[in-house]
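input
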Amino acid sequence: MYGNILTNLNMYKIKPFVLNSFYQLKRMRTMKKLIFTTILFISMGTMVFAQKDNSKKGHKTPEEKAKHLTDVLEKKLTLTADQKTKIYAISLDGLKQVKASHVEGQKPDKEKVKAELAKRDVQISAVLNDSQRKLYQDWKAEKMKSMKKHGKKGSDKTQ
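output
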């Protein structure tokens, strides 16, 4: 196709700068296609990664959350095996009650969550000895300070 055009241009003795502009137009069209395709692939890749990140955020089961809380408290407070099993059971029970009261697709009722959290804290404090109870209160205060600093609402991440 382009060969015929070039022959016709040579036949009419068209000057070389016209031929040069013809090649430039052809290159510009090719570059536009290349740039558009590159932008398209980059935006599609960005959308894929954005969707993957949202699917991973904070969808742990109550069992996983209770295990995590128990592990953290074990490291902070040096719990005995008996204390560890009791705290796991208390946490699991509280988290299951919060999940049971939560209606899918709606935000959880803050009052119920706070009440359950307070109940869980009282039960956990009852299991601990005096020195562990002091460390537990300090850990909760530190956690609250950290959450306020980072702008998170609520008092405990394990809810």
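quick obs: The helical segments are 2-11, 16-56, 62-77, 81-101, 110-127, 130-150.
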